[in-house]
Amino acid sequence: MDQIATQSVIACIVNQRARSNAAAQLAERVAELFRAHGVRVETIVIEDGSQLLPVARRFARNGKGIVVAAGGDGTVSAVASAIVGTQATLGVLPLGTLNHFAKDMGIPLDLDAAVENIIHGVPKLVDVGEVNERIFVNNSSIGLYPAIVQQRSRHQSRGMSKWAAFARAIYTVLRRMPHFHATVRADGRYDGRDRTPFIFVGNNPYQTNGLQIGERQRLDTGRLWVCRAPDADRLTLMWMAFRALFGRTAPGELKVNEVEELWVQTRKNRRIKLANDGEVFATRSPLHYRILPLALRVLVPAQS
């Protein structure tokens, strides 16, 4: 059995929102899979997302060598936030809908294989992003996407399925097509004042064309990937998205930078909504983004 598993007590945090109908059964199933490999694991089921961060911090600071996030990208992000700056290692059991972080890290999406990865995988250091002292592992977004997430939640609360609610939210938000003005400074230099429907900040560069659109090849370049679409209207955005799927994005349509540090100033003292890894919160402008190179240790398959 691998050294990292035998020398560490593993804590597994199961987010009930990921599979609310069977959270307790899922936790027991996870424990059984670890026991089958002769590995001790302590599982805890979280019923409220606000508990994720304090529970993960407690585990990380109490000597748990591996803290496992069992849930979607929001769960992974919260657990990662808690263990950055500690000696703990992040394990991932991808139980969400999209599982972007797991896919980009090459972590298996099958539960049994993901458990084996935690036992037999190797630790890899990767970057994380930070905005106003909040960590994100995938991306942070201002403008369209936080509005879409909030609309989706409203529709889901009225009984819609997740994907139907998401489609309805996109339609609702694009009808209004909100824009905002932002003054941007990238790596200490003035980078313009734009009227834009969104600013997207990725933890490392994202693919923007073809079948790999929305994926990252690496998470250790030490760079944030910043994207905005100055003055784009609704039809322009839809046309750009359609052509991006076929690898035909025209130069200059998007304003893209790779930076280590970013300042975004919107209207003075105005609270602005952000979506960090799909979780919406409000903070005050200016927004201070920075990359934290190799700040997170993650278990990945040995071949990757």
How would you describe this structure to a colleague?
By secondary structure, this protein is of the alpha+beta class. It is 32% helix and 34% strand. The protein contains nine helices and 16 strands. The strands form three sheets. The protein has a six-stranded antiparallel sheet. Strands 12-11-10-7-14-15 form a six-stranded antiparallel sheet, covered by helices on one side. Helix 3 packs across helix 4 and helix 7 (144-157) crosses helix 8. The two termini are 19 Å apart. Mean pLDDT is 86; it is low at 3-7.
Q: What is the H/E string?
A: HEHEHEHEHHEEEHHEEEEHEEEEE
Specify the helix fraction band.
Answer: 25-40%
The number of distinct helices, counting runs of at least 4 residues, comes to: 9
Give the N-terminus to C-terminus distance in angstroms.
19 Å
- List unreliable stretches of 5+ residues: 3-7
- What characteristic shape results from the CA principal axes? globular
Quaternary structure type: single chain
Number of strands: 16
Q: What order do the strands of the largest sheet run in, or round the barrel if closed?
A: 6-5-16-13-8-9
Tell me what portion of residues adopts beta-strand conformation: 25-35%
Helix-strand makeup class: alpha+beta
Overall average residue pLDDT: 86
**Rg over C-alpha atoms, rounded to the nearest angstrom:** 20 Å
Largest sheet: 6 strands, antiparallel
